[in-house]
Amino acid sequence: MRDQHIISRIENTPFASLSQDDLLAIQVHTEHCSDCLRAFQAAQISALLLKERAADEFEPSPFFHTRVLATLRERQAVNDSWAWSRLWRAAGALASSMVATVAALAVLTFVIPGEVPSTNQQVSSFYNGYSAEEVLLNQNEQVDEPATDAQVLNTIYDEEEAVR
After folding, report:
1. Axis-axis angle for helices 20-30, 34-55 (nearest 10)
2. Which of 77, 142, 17 is nearest to 9 (CA)?
3. What is the Cα–Cα distance from 160 to 158, expressed in whole angstroms?
């Protein structure tokens, strides 16, 4: 029994919930081990102090309720008046950057328009020489027969070789 100290049992189990077997084992062990006896006595004193302290009733000062409620009312009044300022501090930078972006986009869209050619011929030459109607609908060239698969593949591979 000397090799098995009870300190871990005392530390891991609340003193009030020790069983009779645990108390008997502690009593037998503390007869021979002074360190464990001191730990057991400290646990007993701590349990008694906690029990006595829990039994004491605490009475707040007579005006405690009044002071607490007055402080709560003051904080609510301050928080209500500063709610918009706190919101602006939190989201002000984001809102400002969004407004600046919208203004910049409006200037780019309405004040500085891009170059727009006046006729269809200028439009087709402005964009790589092809218009959507020419490419998709073949309106400028009247082709009687559609291109075969072989012609399309030859055209694609000839362009790839030219690029390389």
Report:
1. 130
2. 17
3. 5
- Tens of pLDDT, residues 81-99: 666 777 778 888 899 999 9
User: How many angstroms separate the CA atoms of 159 and 6, rounded?
Assistant: 91
The residues, any chain, with a CB within 8 Å of residue 66's CB and separated by 6 or more, are none
Residues in Cβ contact with 32 at an 8 Å cutoff, skipping those fewer than 6 apart: 1, 2
Report yes or no: 72 and 64 within 8 Å, Cβ to Cβ: no
Check if the beta carbon of residue 41 is closer than 8 Å to that of residue 6.
Answer: no
DSSP state of 56: S
